[in-house]
Design goal:
It comes from Spectribacter acetivorans. The chain is α+β, with helices and mostly antiparallel strands. The chain folds into three domains: 95 residues, no CATH class; 107 residues, DNA primase DNAg catalytic core, N-terminal domain; 127 residues, Dna Topoisomerase Vi A Subunit, Chain: A, domain 2 (3-Layer(aba) Sandwich). Helices cover 34% and strands 21% of the residues. Strands 9-11-10-12-14 form a five-stranded mixed β-sheet, with helices on both faces. Strands 1-2-3-4 form a four-stranded antiparallel β-sheet, covered by helices on one side. Strand 1 and strand 2 form a beta hairpin. The longest helix has 18 residues. It is globular.
């Protein structure tokens, strides 16, 4: 019996909260907010972050649909999965069918016609407010070598990162407001905290938004629901394809998801690294044309999002002629943890936990290839 899309849609109706929670963990916050409030309310976008960009529609249990102020509207759960997981629509349908235990005897499901996402509405006043807040927040930050930035340095040391110099894209804010949405759907000020603030840039190296890590004076993460947040962006900025460029690469670049993980990679390997913030954004990273060798330091996680994103980026970079190498931490993942990353490796094993032998071999091979490319073959040489 052929499994029709209408059959899958019908089976999914009324069950989307469970389906989305199982297939897209990055939507947990939005699902939690919808269930707590009794009606969907805005939370940070699961793709580009921020505070209040995304919410589910009021009939999300039935349809699974939602909307992001910057990314657009997604009328049902299949479209949401396609967007948030970077799946094809066929992958979304097959994953939902598998989750629901539906089977087809006639082979793969054929995808439906492509849809055109609804264009998000642009609020000029909101854009102006967001741009002002981004500029004022960055203007209030201090360089890492300012004595008042001690809580940020303590935080990095407690994460196992003793740096001789902190990248310029990382700065310190002494009293950054932390806002949250209460059960009445009102945005309230919870308090002001020290914070590490990172500049995230677009693919063409222009400022996109700010990533904030809220801290205590002692240098530990603040006791707030989400100690790490992205600020909302004006509608004319695009973080997709961008990163937090912690190092300045020549022809060789490392990438990792988290800021601290990328810093650990730089300490262990001396290779410039960029942080992509999330697995979704890692998959979309746009590389500069000058990059010849790319090292992807993937997270090992239970949902395979990190591994899948690393593979997607690797395949795209290979198609562009880049020499790509993906490194995955050894398992197993600790029982109490969702993942294991290269910061964990650095803290547990130090430099020795990194594949230095392979990195040296690759460096030597590249050097040899470069030398050979400058040696003219005998029949091209002029007689002396």
């Amino acid at each position: 019996m052929k499994l029709e899309f209408s059959t899958i849609r019908h089976a999914a109706n009324g069950h989307w909260a469970g389906i989305l929670r199982a297939l897209a963990p990055s939507l947990d916050e939005a699902l939690d907010a919808a269930s707590r409030a009794g009606r969907p309310r805005h939370v940070g976008c699961p793709v580009h972050g921020g505070n209040d960009g995304f919410r589910f529609f009021t009939d999300y249990e039935q349809t699974g649909g939602g909307i992001c102020n910057s990314c657009g509207a997604y009328k049902n759960g299949f479209d949401v999965l396609e967007w948030v997981n970077q799946w094809s629509i066929k992958q979304a349908f097959e994953a939902v069918a598998d989750h629901l235990g539906l089977e087809s005897s006639d082979g793969p499901i054929e995808p439906p016609p492509p849809r055109t996402p609804a264009a998000p509405e642009i609020d000029a006043e909101q854009d102006k407010r967001r741009l002002h807040l981004l500029r004022s927040t960055w203007g209030q930050t201090l360089a890492a070598d300012d004595p008042r930035a001690a809580p940020m340095l303590r935080y990095l040391v407690q994460r196992g990162l003793t740096l001789s110099g902190v990248p310029d894209v990382l700065r310190f804010h002494p009293k950054l407001p932390y806002y949250e949405t209460n059960d009445d759907d009102r945005v309230v000020l919870r308090g002001e905290y020290p914070a590490m603030v990172a500049m995230a840039v677009t693919p063409d190296d222009q400022p996109a938004t700010l990533h904030r890590t809220y801290l205590t004076e002692d240098g530990v993460k603040a006791d707030v629901p989400k100690p790490k947040k992205l600020m909302s962006m004006p509608s004319d900025r695009e973080l997709s394809g961008g990163s937090i460029p912690l190092g300045k690469p020549g022809t060789t670049l490392s990438v990792a998801e988290g800021i601290e993980t990328a810093l650990a990679v730089m300490l262990a390997t001396s290779i410039p690294a960029w942080a992509t913030i999330s697995s979704t954004l890692m998959a979309k990273l746009v590389l500069p044309e000058r990059i010849e060798t790319l090292f992807i330091w993937s997270d090992l996680d239970r949902g395979h999002a990190g591994q899948n994103a690393a593979q997607e980026l690797a395949e795209r970079a290979l198609s562009q002629g880049v020499d790509v190498h993906v490194f995955l931490p050894d398992g197993p993942i600790p029982i109490e943890a969702k993942s294991r990353d290269w910061l964990d490796v650095f803290n547990q094993e130090g430099h020795t936990g990194f594949p230095h032998r392979k990195l040296r071999h690759l460096a030597m091979a590249k050097k040899q290839a470069h030398q050979n490319s400058h040696v003219m073959p005998p029949h091209d040489r002029k007689a002396g």
